Amino acid sequence: MSRGAIVAGVLAPHPPHLVYAENPPQNEPRAECGWEVLRWAYERCRANIKALKPDVLLVHSPHWPTYMGHHVLGLPHFKGLSVDPVFPHLFRYHYDCSIDVALSLELRDAMEAQGLKTAVVTNPDFRLDYGSIISLHLINPAWDLPVVLISANQAAFYYSNEIGTEVAQRLGQATRTAVEQSGKRAVLLASCSLSHRHFVHEPDIPEDMSYERIHHHGQYLWDMKVLDMMRRGQSKELLDIMPEFIEMATAEVKAGSLAWLLEALGVPTYAAEVHGYGTVIGTGNAVVEWNPSRTQGGQG
Amino acid sequence: MNTSLITKAYIVSGMPHILLAPERSAGWGRLRSAFEAIRADIDREEADLILYFSTQWLSILGYTFQADPRPEWVHVDQNWHELGSMPYQFTIDCDFAGAYAEAVAEMGYKTRLINYKGFPIDTGTIVAQKLLNPQNRLPAAMVSCNMYSEKEETTRLGQAAARALQRSGKKAIAVLVSSLSHRFHVEPLDPVHDRISSRKDEEWNRKILEMLAAGQVENVAQTVREFARQAHGDQKFKGMWWLNGLLGQSNDFEGKVYAYEAVWGTGATAVRLKPTHPVTATPFDPVAAREEGSQADLVEALTDFERSSRPPSPPTTPLSVPPPSTLPAPPFPDFEIVNPGSAEPVGNYPHARRYGDVLFLSGIGPRKPGSKEIPGVSFDADRRVVAYDIREQTRSVIENVKTILEHAGSSLEKVLDVQVFLTNMARDFPGYNEVYNQAFANIRPTRTTVEVGALPTPIAVEFKVIARP
Fold it and tell me: What are the strands, taking DSSP E only, across B126-224?
């Protein structure tokens, strides 16, 4: 068996608004329009990922928070209805998802080798978190690839941003090891926004774009600083300032998704491709792709 | 006829271990038994609905209200999935949900009625509802916990529930689903050895439980911020503000702690609060609310630099202590009580001291606070007493005693013993005794009356009182 590889990584934010605005058959509510810049960014990224012909998608989502270690799914198939508890009027999505159980279990073993605690979901009634579902839909709406879902350990909330980032990096190392041992071509999805201060009011028409803007200027400055570092290939520097970014921009990366992704990618020094940036109820969201085959002619 | 809007209120943990795995730990089993005792208690109660506030149902855009008449699902907790599934079918009082949402909307908060198949009811509400109201004997009402709300807003959310009950002509059982301290163990744990995650959390939980056992809901609500800071309260323990708002912000309850145990490190409890006075609704004060604004608005205003985004005291009743295995005795009370609203002591002593379950008052005279005035005493230009009215002085002494007792969480009805000092027994006894009888004839504490040569200020009577707290 050949050595597996992480062929790309994507910062894949999960606002339910993006699925809502797209009107896919799986989602019950219907919209007129909305958040096109981000949705078109996803379209470009989606095409690139498809061209890589990956075997599996791995997603790390803040909306599967776990206190004791990281959890993965241990059953081959999950089907159900996901209703966003905050935006149920936007997201009621019927999912049908295949799980790469073998890779999930290899990841569990690799995590334990890293000293991380783990648990495996074997309850068939378990409902997948809406963050993972949204990112997976936006990257692969056909759902024709098996996936690995990874929960977000709450170390950053329990201890500190520094410890949370460190735990996420160890998870990233374990993920890299597991993928390499699996012999599979994997794409990683960090399912999170950047800055995450949001408005607490919503227009009567949720997709009324005249109300959409960043929550405040400081948040925007931080988002641009971080995106600029990604475009320059400054992953190590970004990891270094991650705790400060989390604190200053109330960033959703606090749950560890971005630190996990960067570490799993080997702390890339090549440029990431920012497909687009946009706000959703005031939060900063970017679709960003790390794809060495495009920027380096490398591993892809 | 019971005119109280709330017949009883409960505070229970929403950890799924109590529902799904009580056999794995003696502590979880005791919690399960406590829930079953509460269920029996609720079954005896005549109410129109059971009203839940769970810290596990979070909202960010105002408040959401369950309005699906028959929500049905098989729920699995995201963290504790290995414990098993929780199938449910609940009956919801949708009329009340609408009335409650309307009462909240009147205060200017965004509201949303939830009637979507598959909407995820939170683990805490499911655990409580399945254990406390398993047959849907009472229709349920459920309101969300706003992540950003602070004390005033959450208290008003509770007050709005009382107004909605009043308008609906309904009585409810209230259930707050919340842990006390909320730090989890983050390492694998044998449930047999489950324990509160730190000694500090343990101490704070017991402080809160002592107050709840004494029925001091308002006092607990005032303590929430510090408790949350010190013991990592569940969603800052803000559910207590909701409950306090709903219950009328008083300490007029009989408390009972059914159980207190650790569940994966968190402080899990089952507490009952029985109103000793009818719970009524508080009218909404739109002026005050407008002045205060909502916490969410405040956060937005403080951080939105560019433009608006928007379209246009000690226990009142003896502690009710569960068996030692579930709640070891709280720290022995021994502290001073000084009431800023009473006359200042003339020496270096407090107005009262609580020692255990007894309150000792210092000698209390008729002097009024903040002045040298002594009711019923006339002075000449050199401040020599020229006349005094023993009846008026005695009335003032009794009023002062009452004020101090109430400040200490007690009352005149709880007086056990009175020592009375008169400066002129022959002249003053009949007048003093007449006023004394008016106040104490039905209370009947033990009493001793003696004549003394003088008292520290130009007063003719002083009481020394011992009472129950």
Answer: 140-146, 172-177
